[in-house]
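Annotated sample (chain length 287).
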Amino acid sequence: MLYRVISILCYIILAPFLGGLLEGLDRKISARMQGRVGPPILQPFYDLIKLFKKQYIIVDRAQHFLLLSYLALVVFTGCMFFGGSDLLMCFFVLSTASVFLYFAAVITSSPYTTIGGQRELIQDMACEPALLFAALGFYLISGSFNIDTIVHSQYSAIAKLPGFFLAFVFILTIKMRKSPFDESASHHAHQELVKGITTEMGGRNLAIYNVTEWYETVLMLSVLALFIINENPWSYLAAALVICAAYFAEILIDNTAARVKTSTMLKMTWMVTLLSAGVNFLVLMLV
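Output written by the structure step:
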């Protein structure tokens, strides 16, 4: 019980710092890929401090509450995950958090944020099958949705779930809002939606959104590690290497792929999910 409490506290305290460092590395590596020097790795934290110091301009009072709800649900999901709770329930709560982000976007009545919010829901539709397949895959090989049971398996889940792993890695691009699937909120301001769901967020609200994204990034990478970790202590090192490789791949894709249409994103994601996770599922059922 004590180690669970420690794991939860570590997530609550350290996840935003780790997420901010990952974003700083993302910016630096992206700049190098583009032949630039790039900002310092700690730049995301400087930006966050500046956002909290800005004058608080209210677009809609309810937006602040909705963004806080979005943050609370993402943090709660991470606490459930690191507390060894039910993986399927974690995914359900995470999906609920996205709904609060949608309402935080559309409540401003801005055409840019409204369309961005609608695309956010479509992105969730694209990701849900892969997330559910991942939870189902872990259940098939461990007999439980309980994260503690999955972690203490005798072998890495990826040995029997390579298709599920591929589908999950594919949706990471959507969850991290990287090209070619940065549909609802792009870090490039020159797209047709300007900044999408974040267009009407400023100051404190935008800071809350950024911190929430850092929490979610760490959570999704932790789920990725679940495919590698087993009762062998060395598996944690292997999981860390897989996470680093996957994150670098996401940065590379973001800098080399052009953004696709929302309908194309939905078709591609479901196709990859059905072909990889679906075929893997059929193999597990037949063997």
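Annotation: The first helix runs from residue 2 to 33.
Annotation: Residues 2-286 form one domain.
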